[in-house]
Amino acid sequence: MNVLEVRNLSKSFGKTKIINDISFHVGEGEIVGFVGPNGTGKTTTLKMISNLIWPDQGEIEIAGYNLFKEREKALSNLAGIVENPGLYQNLSGRDNLKFIQKIRGVSKERLDEVIEITGLKDRLDRKVKKYSLGMKQRLALGMCILTKPKFLILDEPTNGLDPTGTFELRQLIERMAKKEQVSILFSSHMLGEVEKLANRVIYIKEGRIISEKEQVRKEGISYSLLVNHKEKAVKLFEELDWILEINTNENNSIKIRVEEEKIGLVLNQLCKEEIIVLDMEKEKEDLEDVYNQIFLSE
Ligand SMILES: Nc1ncnc2c1ncn2[C@@H]1O[C@H](COP(=O)(O)OP(=O)(O)OP(=O)(O)O)[C@@H](O)[C@H]1O
Questions:
Q1: Ligand 1 site, residue 15, Cβ cutoff 6 A
Q2: For residues 186-208, average pLDDT
Q3: How far away, in angstroms, is 187 Cα from ligand 1 center?
Q4: Which burial class, exposed, middle or buried, applies to 293 when counting CB atoms under 10 A from its CB (0-12, 13-18, 19+)?
Q5: Contacts of 270 by beta carbon, 8 Å cutoff, 6+ apart
Q6: pLDDT by residue (tens digit) across 66-86?
Q7: Which domain of life is it from (predicted)?
Q8: Could you tell me if the CB of 41 is within 6 A of ligand 1?
């Protein structure tokens, strides 16, 4: 059974049709990216699924329950962050979590488990207003999963985060998806993020779904390096077990795939071995081509 079924959903604001007869689903265990340019209706769709606004037409089922006929049952399977996460700024992270724990009747064991997953353990007694945006997002995610929902909705989860915050949040989402077996629908206009997180991507433009693509998630980013001692560099890379992929081309360059955060380390190691980097290029994200074809081709 799919955790989400959306059928023929439409929504207008005034005379403008924002969402135009869209249908899609999210299967069990899937992480689905909802991608499109600004103002194209992503947030509006996520708000309809979260029951924050009503569609003019269409059906939504969550975990098999019709959102409009069996609202409570449907919503008990859903958690999410759409627009600002609802955090009490003057309370500590721990008290924010405990608040949800109490009102939702969550066990102490589950609270401890969630604290572990968020990776915020050492900073939980600070007031939320002193948290970085990334920490706030991680706390909000923790609050979402306290009740072990089947399905999670995240609207632009990494928006506004710096690269470290983005990396930490992505790791948390991946950890959570694996450990909690929660299915996720997230919107984004950051293709790098979508490529790293999603198993499937749904493209939306002007309120219509224009394409859907399965994708194999790839860890890390590819770089092409042109060096003065190719064989020596390849030997070095083969010894570094955190380099995810090595490809040598017919020309003198070497293509490697590493976590983005580790490229500095690669350059350090080359420098130590007195190998000179003559040229370096970051590979274009695969999705970028697809995105350009879909959105810029007209
Ligand atoms: N309550 C509202 N009343 C009138 N128009 C609205 C309302 N909410 C959204 N819109 C309009 O609907 C369109 C789609 O907005 P939406 O926020 O869903 O887009 P989005 O794809 O999430 O974009 P972004 O990435 O910029 O958040 C926009 O033109 C927006 O101005």
A1: no
A2: 86
A3: 13
A4: exposed
A5: 225, 227, 233, 236, 276, 277
A6: 999 999 999 999 998 887 778
A7: Bacteria
A8: yes
